[in-house]
Design goal:
By secondary structure, this protein is an alpha+beta fold. The chain contains 13 helices and five strands. It has a five-stranded antiparallel beta sheet with strand order 1-5-4-3-2, with helices on one face.
Length: about 290
């Protein structure tokens, strides 16, 4: 499986579309932390006490992504590989997903049209949670701008001769919890929500993991001030690739052209989504794709 020093091949079951991931990151990439090119994605990494960078490239002639990483990450290679596989949803069984939705009158045709759609997931759960909180009630573009300010103010600087475009780590929970975030571009209430959340993670009172189950995790997040069901479900989906997470009040899901010009309301969608368990997150991926096309 190994190709050359610090390079691995990560196999997947086709179909899988690089274009889906490229589009996803093109809207969200953080300058200095991430670098997106037409045929590659790179980012900074802090993992098991090590920091460095990795780059992935799709291979035209194989059902695999090429992973290249800098030598400092060698001690945590199993963890790195697992995270990258999750990030690009390489362990998905697309035939199983397609079969699950095939009989659904509305979703079946969407899935049949794009059987390679996957769940793009964040490399780091804390980073994704910060993005979700910052992104409450603002556009993706506005959220990226504000998160970029957090990175510039609080992200540790990096320097790599072989990856000069990777210049910062994403800020730590402790750094965000303790910072003066005046003038960052968020309402005071949301700043409080973000800093309380970061402090809970920094102190160890909140563990960002699904080891007690997805439902318990969502309930725990919803118990924090300023975090409601949309944020909690979105974090479960985008931070962990939880396959049944479903942020039913998400505007893109409610306004997907599939529902007609009037859309659908969150209560109706939540009820409708019961039939899609245990793969509701894939239903969301197809509805978001439908929304972006429409």
């Amino acid at each position: 499986m190994s190709q050359s020093p610090n390079t691995l091949l990560l196999n997947y079951q086709p179909p899988w579309q690089w274009q889906q991931f490229h589009t996803h990151f093109a809207l969200r990439a953080l300058a200095g932390v991430e670098n997106l090119q037409p045929h590659s994605y790179a980012r900074s990494v802090q993992l098991d006490g090590q920091y460095g960078w990795f780059r992935v490239q799709p291979l035209a002639d194989q059902h695999a992504l090429q992973l290249h990483y800098n030598h400092s990450l060698h001690p945590c290679l199993p963890a790195l590989t697992a995270r990258v596989r999750k990030m690009f949803d390489l362990d998905c069984q697309p035939q199983q997903i397609s079969a699950h939705f095939a009989a659904d009158a509305q979703l079946g045709p969407l899935v049949a049209r794009n059987p390679g759609l996957r769940l793009p997931t964040a490399f780091d759960p804390f980073e994704q949670a910060v993005r979700a909180i910052v992104g409450q009630q603002v556009t993706v573009k506005a959220a990226v701008t504000i998160t970029g300010r957090l990175v510039t103010r609080l992200g540790e600087p990096l320097q790599f001769a072989d990856a000069p475009e990777i210049q910062r780590l994403f800020p730590t929970p402790a750094a965000i919890a303790a910072a003066n975030l005046g003038g960052i571009g968020m309402p005071g209430k949301r700043v409080q929500t973000l800093q309380h959340f970061a402090a809970q993670v920094a102190s160890g009172d909140l563990h960002l993991s699904l080891q007690d189950g997805y439902t318990a995790f969502v309930e725990q997040l919803c118990g924090l001030p300023g975090i409601g069901p949309w944020t909690a479900e979105y974090i479960a989906l985008r931070a962990f690739g939880e396959v049944d997470a479903f942020p039913a009040s998400d505007l893109g899901l409610l306004k997907a052209p599939l529902w007609g010009p009037e859309g659908i309301d969150a209560k109706q969608l939540k009820a409708r989504a019961e039939a899609w368990r245990p793969w509701r997150a894939y239903a969301a991926a197809h509805l978001w794709h439908n929304y972006s096309e429409g």
